[in-house]
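During the no-cost extension, the postdoctoral fellow (Dr. R.K.) reprocessed legacy sequence entries with the updated structure-token encoder. One reprocessed record is reproduced below for audit purposes.
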Amino acid sequence: MKKTILRLFDKLKMMFSFEAGIDITDDTAVLYRRNIVIKNIIFLSNIAYTIILFVISFTNPNNSSNWVLTIIFMPFTFFLNRTLKKLIYDDKKDIVKQQVAMYMASFYMFLSSIFIYFRLKSGNDALSEAGYILLYYSLVVVSLYQDRKMLASVYKWMLVIVTILHFTLTYNIYSEDYATDLIQFLKVFFRTEAFSDIALRTMILILFMIVVYSSVQLSQYVYDERKTEIKKRKGIQTDFSDVVSDLFEVILNTSSINDNTIEHINLVKEIANRLAIDYKLNEDKINAINEYVLIHVNERDNLKITRKEQLQESDYQEIRRRSEIGAIVAKRIQLERKCEDIVRIHIEGNANKDFVARMNTIQNNIEAQTILLADIYVTLREAKSYKRPYSHKLALECINEEMGVYFDERLFDKFIKNNKIYEDIYNG
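Re-encoded structure tokens follow.
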């Protein structure tokens, strides 16, 4: 039972909600959704109006015209709903059809509320005020479109017709014997209770219109500003994503991955992991090191998604997530290049104080140092275009004599002290 009620509420929410995954920068799509919501409101309103007409017919059984109007009203509302549905759903991307549906729905709400007020006033005076409230109800429904031009048009017609109703239906001024000429009529009429009531009703109606119009104008302003901001953000996202995708493409293409590279990185991971344990880093930092060592390998395919031709998605969070991953990958590749620069400069004998100072400004936290030290050892053991592969002894001598300036003293001492362990890991 509870699930059934929840499903019913979800269905009602979808019927009367403006937030349904709509791109608010698309005016046609927004109007299409508004038309659907208003159509559903009209459907419920028609049910209420039909019930009201039946009540009038039952309370005045001797008046056959009540039944005639009730019977006529039902097929009319059916035809109207069919027409609205056709306009709205036939081509939801046609702005002209959506606008026609908007004006048809708005003027129907306005005219139907006047018709019901007319029936309530003429059929049962006790319900006349309830019918008058429907005029305000129709204005509220029309205001949901948040279209100032259309709302102003409805207001003009509403004031004209309601004023006519005040003088002809609410108070039968034409049937009263006030005077034979206009001036005398006005002198007498301005002192009557009818004039006070009509003036008060008109004033309250105008005040209500002003408040609703101001609310619509404010909402429209906020909506326009939000739409403009989203358009700007989309433009910035597209430009930023294009730059990021180009940057990552350059980075990834200059950092090729092959079997030898994978083997190198796995060795770096194993040695860095053991060095972190020997240094007694906590578990979180050890896990961060293990993840960071491999991130530029594991996340390459995810970064390839962010190419220009594929960046039409509107999911800001997804673009942000990829950009954050890309930034981490770029940092990891930077650390890899730092290792290569240090090894090459020292092999060539060109290291100086400025170079050491510059290198020590690049990712110098203890986790990065742990990976860098492991990477330097593995790099020294391997053959490069500028060097032959070093034995463990020669690599250790090079690190011990020249590389200490890049590392935390205790971390460096742990590596030198436990070097046999790292040799065993390298040799497999």
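The CA atoms of residues 295 and 328 lie 8 Å apart. The chain is about 80% helix and 0% strand. The remaining legacy entries will be reprocessed before the final report is submitted.
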